[in-house]
Automatic annotation (TrEMBL):
The chain crosses the membrane at residues 12-31, 609-633. Its main location: membrane. It comes from the Eukaryota. GO terms for molecular function: transmembrane signaling receptor activity. InterPro entries: Cys-rich_flank_reg_C, Leu-rich_rpt, Leu-rich_rpt_typical-subtyp, LRR_dom_sf, TIR_dom, Toll-like_receptor, Toll_tir_struct_dom_sf. Keywords: Disulfide bond, Glycoprotein, Immunity, Inflammatory response, Innate immunity, Leucine-rich repeat, Membrane, Receptor, Repeat, Signal, Transmembrane, Transmembrane helix. This is TIR domain-containing protein.
Length: 829
């Protein structure tokens, strides 16, 4: 029997700590604004300016005009005058906390009509300033030194004000006229007090605030606890939904009356929060009992100090005279400090909480939970036991014999405890039939064979040293997985194939060096890989993530080269939830510190497809241009000539061969086949009658030899080359070759062995560019012109031609021509 009593006592003690923990609201330690007010000005990072802790004595005059958010907290600005902010017409949010600010001029904001948030808390303002800010939404004047909460007439014009903070340690009374100027404002959130003891309150002081929804009171009711009842009645009259009591009972305050009696009759209050205050067991019992008889659905305690002043401790077994169902659904408890050195006695009837769905019990040093909690709260859906010293058997105590573990529990948070055995925990997930979320982050988890329940889809193992092997101990049914700061060094396609249903994957603060190019996770919607060792993002990796909607990848040592070019320029930045801050280059050295947003290499240097297109296009254009020039300049002909010239060179040194040579022919005649009638009927008969030995291709070419070799051989064996020029000659390719070779031979032996007969007029400009020598000769009229049907001139023509074929010295030619022409001239006379 004694053992059973001891066991019951231990259960009650543990449960007491549990209930207390779940009655705390997470809040910070000083008076802060809490509001959901939506602002119409949206400040971007480039329009925000933080000048806090800069030792400033006045507002700097050279601030950017586009500044919308300005933080001047923790400086030495003692006053604010009309011209201090006139250069900031777009200012929307201004913070001037902790400055020793004494004066705010009524004209201080005359050039700042867009200010919507003004925080001048924690200063030494001795009066509540008049403000001409028609668009003001949030105003915090708390923790100053004015001696009254009476608001000036200017507050009548603040028709958009939704949140107001007032507080001074010098103010100990609240009067009905204090808030009268706010009767027409849509004020929803009022935070009042600076920790002073209230000595006077006029009922009806808050009734002129019909839109008020949330009230925070930072004041003490130790000496006059009835004031709290008067305030609660006022709040009930205007249907306030949320009440926060901060430091309402100082340490060692002797509360003798029922401080919370008025809570019973409140029909509209839904949320009650106690924070930064002292509780003894009797006051706590009274508070909880009365809250349970109100309409409140959420009861929260934060950062309380507890002392036991009654033998039975906290005891809540029944509610005398109360036959309604308790509406309480959420109990929150975070951080409890024990005034004594032993655990308090707590006895709570869990059947009084039939609708409780959320319990938070954290920061208490709890190491074990009572057995009846496991199955007694059948409606419980969310249980948070974070920041304790629980271990595997502290949650699932072997001495407990519960027929059903947490029958309705869906979410279990065990962050920052002493859990180790992953197999033990995974086995118990099968016992909790509805569990879908489990948080085991920041424990001392050791990997072991697991047996996860298929209905567990959300698991957090962050802040545990697990390594790459962790992927082998996960469930394929996971949809949300947090493996941040677990020592992972690689992410492979094989590991992702083990998680086919994962939709949200958090891998921040690891040592992952790259994403696999063959990554395939079609269901993945959100991926966090920030604070890793990733240098580049291969484009192929994201092709395997067609469903990706959110990506966090900042604070990686990016190498800004062409492999990252596509990510900086083409990747859909709406997917990046933290772009562009903290996306910077770490290499190369000249780009270190440059944001990826500003990384803009030339597209030509980083786009292979574009380089290929430009290269092919350039090649085509150059080839086309070269082809046009080649065609226009008879390039094909010159190439042929070059090849033939090389063949000629192979025959040996021309000059050496010609020195001292006896020629077989006086002349080689080059003509077009279409002019053969003149050559055969006129030229050849006339010259051969004069004993000239002529070479004609139709008669003297060696049958079977290559024609080019025949031409070259005849040129070499002839003293002269006689060209019969006509339009037919110009159009003949073979005649062109013969002219080219003859010119080359003449240059080689340094003599003029070329003789030109102009059979018919040829316009010089009609000659192709390849006939440069011929054009020059025609310009100089260095040729013999055939006098058609003129007998006298024909005699002179033949005389000159014979002279040219007989000698090579120009002076000798002139002498012979003169001798030939003298008889002709006499006959003419």
């Amino acid at each position: 029997m004694q053992n059973q009593d001891e066991k019951l006592r231990r259960n009650l003690i543990t449960f007491a700590l549990f209930v207390l923990s779940l009655m705390i609201l997470i809040a910070d330690g000083r008076f802060t604004m809490q509001t959901n007010t939506e602002l119409t000005c949206f400040t971007q990072a480039k329009e925000q300016l933080d000048l806090s802790k800069h030792g400033l004595r006045k507002v700097p005059p050279n601030l950017p005009m586009n500044t919308q958010y300005l933080d001047l907290s923790y400086n030495n600005i003692s006053s604010l005058h009309g011209d201090d902010l006139e250069h900031l017409p777009n200012l929307c949010v201004l913070k001037l906390t902790h400055n020793g600010l004494e004066i705010i001029s009524p004209l201080a904001f005359q050039r700042n009509p867009r200010v919507q948030v003004l925080d001048v808390s924690f200063n030494v303002l001795k009066i509540i300033p008049d403000l001409n800010l028609p668009d003001l939404r949030v105003l915090d004047l708390s923790q100053n030194l004015y001696n009254s909460y009476s608001l000036g007439r200017s507050f009548k014009n603040l028709l958009n004000l939704t949140s107001l903070g007032l507080g001074s340690p010098l103010v100990k009374s609240i009067n009905t006229f204090d808030f009268a100027p706010l009767c027409a404002t849509p004020l929803k959130n009022l935070q009042l007090g600076a920790g002073a003891e209230m000595s006077h309150f006029e009922p009806g002081s808050f009734t002129c605030l019909p839109a008020l929804q949330e009230m925070t009171l930072k004041m003490s009711f130790c000496e006059k606890p009835l004031i709290l009842g008067d305030i609660l009645r006022d709040l009930e009259r205007i249907n306030v939904k949320s009440l926060t009591l901060k430091r309402f009972v100082p340490d060692q305050c002797d509360v003798t009356s029922n401080l919370f009696e008025q809570l019973k009759g409140m029909e509209h209050l839904q949320n009650i929060t106690f924070t930064d205050t002292f509780f003894n067991s009797s006051v706590l019992t009274n508070a909880v009992s009365n809250v349970m008889q109100s309409s409140a659905e959420t009861l929260s305690f934060f950062n309380i100090t507890f002392a036991q002043d009654t033998p039975e401790g906290v005891k809540i077994h029944d509610l005398p005279g109360y036959n309604k169902t308790v509406r309480l659904r959420v109990l929150t408890f975070h951080k409890i400090h024990h005034h004594q050195y032993y655990f308090p006695l707590v006895s709570v009837n869990t059947s009084l909480f039939p609708h409780l769905t959320h319990l938070k019990f954290s920061g208490t040093g709890m190491s074990i939970i009572p057995c009846n909690l496991i199955s007694a709260l059948r409606s419980l859906e969310v249980l948070d036991l974070s920041d304790n010293i629980l271990h595997n058997h502290g949650l699932w105590w072997s001495a407990c014999s519960s027929p059903e573990e947490f029958p309705s529990l869906k979410q279990l948070y065990l962050r920052n405890n002493q859990f180790k055995d992953l197999q033990f925990i995974s086995n118990h997930t099968h016992e909790m039939k509805h569990l879908n979320t489990l948080d085991l982050s920041k424990n001392v988890i050791q990997l072991s064979r697991t047996n996860w329940s298929p209905h567990l889809t959300n698991l957090s193992l962050s802040n545990n040293l697990l390594g790459d092997a962790v992927f082998d101990y996960l469930s394929p049914y996971m949809q949300i997985l947090n493996l941040s700061q677990t020592g992972i060094t690689k992410m492979t396609s094989d590991t992702m194939s083990q998680l086919p249903d994962v939709r949200h994957l958090f891998l921040s603060f690891n040592n992952i060096k790259d994403l696999p190019s063959d990554l395939w996770a079609p269901n993945l919607e959100e991926l966090h890989v920030d604070h890793n060792s990733i240098n580049i993002f291969p484009q192929s990796a994201f092709k395997g993530l067609p469903g990706l909607r959110r990506l966090k990848a900042s604070n990686n040592p990016f190498i800004c080269n062409c492999e990252l070019y596509w990510f900086a320029t083409s990747f859909n930045k709406t997917v990046l939830i933290d772009w562009p801050e903290d996306y910077t280059c770490s290499a190369p050295a000249d780009l270190a510190g440059t944001t990826l947003e500003k990384f803009r290499p030339s597209r030509m240097s980083c786009d292979p497809w574009l380089r290929g297109v430009v290269g092919v296009t350039t090649t085509i254009l150059v080839t086309a241009a070269f082809g046009l020039v080649f065609y226009a300049c008879d390039g094909a002909w010159y190439l042929q000539m070059l090849w033939v010239w090389m063949r000629v060179k192979q025959r040996g040194n021309q000059k050496a061969q010609r020195l001292g040579q006896v020629f077989d022919y006086h002349a080689f005649i080059s003509y077009s086949q279409k002019d053969s009638w003149w050559v055969e009927c006129q030229l050849v008969p006339h010259l051969e009658r004069e004993n000239f030995n002529l070479c004609i291709h139709e008669r003297d070419f060696v049958p079977g030899d290559w024609i080019i070799d025949n031409i070259i051989s005849c040129l070499e064996r002839s003293s002269k080359t006689l060209f019969v020029l006509s339009q037919n000659f110009i159009q003949s390719d073979w005649c062109t070759y013969e002219l080219f070779f003859a010119q080359h031979q003449a240059w080689s032996i340094q003599q003029d062995s070329l003789v030109f007969i102009l059979l018919e007029p040829i316009p010089i400009n009609s000659l192709p560019r390849k006939f440069l020598k011929l054009r020059s000769l025609l310009w100089q009229q260095t040729y013999l012109k055939w006098p058609n049907n003129d007998g006298h001139k024909e005699k002179i023509f033949w005389a000159r031609l014979k002279s040219l074929l007989q000698v090579t010295n120009p002076n000798t030619v002139l002498e012979h021509v003169a001798k030939e022409m003298c008889p002709l001239l006499k006959d003419t006379a």
